[in-house]
Specification:
71% of the residues lie in helices and 0% in strands. By secondary structure, it is mainly alpha-helical. The chain starts with a helix and ends in a 6-residue tail after the last helix.
């Protein structure tokens, strides 16, 4: 392992070494990668030195990164004018990231007045070449009057071009223009047409707007079910949207939403942590047969969170979840029957539940099942089968499984004796800090027969 790590170290040194061969002797792309590595390691002086000649020679990626460094003041004094200068050079070569950087500077009014004309010319060229991002940005600039006199009609023209390409943000902005009558005659029907187009292109703000409009009946017929659907679609992209979706969906009796609302109260991510409220929502969901909610209730009873600790009640809920195929509940129930916790001791049932969880890839259940086969408890003793389960767990990276597999190789239990394999698996477990493996590895490597 030490030799392997040293090789990796050499490779990394070769790839990132600011004092090694000059970048001028490398192909431009490789030279840029080295400069990027310096930047990512916060070695800004080296990054500047290596980027400057590449940018001067017209490499768009280098120009974009150099502009970013001047914009943020990384290794240089922050200078918006110099930043825009480099962004414009990269954008002129069609670099989309440079256009995005220019857009962010417009958003925060950081484009110097002396560069407005040149920036607009660059954006217009990109827009005329078909860049939907540039078209939308130009539309916004003209509607808002950023660096130019406001010209709503010109703004709408550019939004229409970008929207026609399926660019969600432009479709949403065009919908707003129709609704507010900016640069175009007000038209609610057209506004909602473009809101729906943007929402169907997964633009979160449009999805959230439609959900809110359906929820209160603003400009569209009130429909809580449709509000729920649009909140659900926007769920992955916004925690505020998620909050609304959880509430509206749970109030509609959606079992999945009730479970997720319970999880939010349990974890405290969107709400103040409250195990009692979590239990209430889990119960609502579980009564509809939600298996994850059943398992969550079992865990609350097991830990005594929001309720008095009660292993018997935990076992009741774990059994419900286990019957619905939840591997973690099957494993917990295996432990309960193995140890007589909350249920009567029963190794046969322990083996049954461990088997169910192990077959689903639950690594702890695989180790536990292997141990039952090794000792012949609840099942007929079979070291070969034990080794099969230890191997599955070991290959998933479980230290106990790796240690047990190593012991099987060392002693020849259920598998042909193989000291090299024993050493290998002890090493894997030891690398994770598993003390018994570290001790056994030290013992084996001290034996004369194992010394090189």
């Amino acid at each position: 392992m030490l030799r392997y790590q040293s090789v990796i170290g050499v490779l990394l040194t070769l790839f990132y070494c600011t004092s090694c061969t000059s970048t001028t002797s490398l192909p431009p792309y490789l030279a840029y990668q080295r400069a990027l590595q310096a930047y990512q390691h916060a070695d800004y002086q080296t990054a500047i030195q290596q980027l400057k000649p590449l940018a001067d020679n017209g490499l768009a990626d280098a120009q974009q990164l150099l502009g970013t460094m001047y914009q943020l003041g990384n290794g240089v004094t922050s200078n918006d004018e110099t930043a825009v200068e480099w962004f414009l050079k990269a954008a002129a070569q069609g670099d989309d990231n440079a256009l995005i950087s220019i857009g962010s500077m417009y958003k925060f009014s950081n484009v110097p007045a002396t560069q407005h004309q040149q920036t607009l010319a660059t954006l217009q060229h990109a827009a005329e070449q078909g860049s939907a991002y540039a078209q939308n940005l130009l539309g916004w600039i003209y509607l808002e009057g950023r660096g130019v006199a406001p010209d709503p009609k010109q703004g709408v023209k550019w939004l229409q071009l970008a929207a026609a390409q399926g660019y969600g943000k432009a479709q949403y902005n065009l919908g707003l223009a129709y609704e507010l009558g900016e640069g175009i005659a007000p038209n609610k029907q057209q506004a909602f047409y473009w809101y729906f187009a943007a929402a169907n292109n997964n633009f979160t703000a449009a999805q959230e707007m439609l959900a809110e409009r359906y929820e209160i009946g603003d400009g569209i017929e009130q429909d809580e079910a449709k509000a729920h659907e649009w909140y659900k679609k926007a769920l992955e992209h916004s925690s505020l949207v998620a909050l609304n979706w959880y509430r509206t969906s749970a109030n509609l009796g959606d079992a999945d939403a009730e479970y997720m609302l319970g999880k939010q109260y349990q974890t405290g991510k969107l709400f103040p942590k409250d195990d009692i409220k979590a239990l209430n929502w889990f119960m609502k969901s579980a009564l509809q047969g939600n298996a994850q909610a059943e398992n969550a209730i079992g865990e609350l009873y097991r830990m005594g969170h929001g309720v008095t600790k009660d292993y018997q009640q935990a076992a009741v809920w774990f059994k419900k979840a286990a019957e619905h195929g939840v591997a973690s509940a099957q494993y917990r129930l295996g432990n309960y029957y193995r140890n007589g916790t909350g249920v009567a001791h029963n190794d046969q049932l322990a083996a049954t539940y461990y088997q169910q969880a192990a077959q689903q890839g639950h690594v702890y259940a695989q180790v536990a099942l292997g141990m039952l086969y090794h000792y012949g408890e609840g099942v007929k003793r079979n070291d070969s089968t034990a080794v099969e389960w230890f191997t599955k767990a070991a290959k998933q990276g479980d230290a106990v499984g790796q240690n047990n597999l190593a012991a099987a190789y060392e002693l020849g239990l259920g598998i042909s004796q193989d000291h090299q394999q024993a050493l290998y698996w002890y090493q894997q477990a030891a690398n994770q800090g598993y003390r018994p493996a570290q001790q056994q590895l030290a013992h084996l490597t001290e034996q004369p027969s194992n010394k090189q």
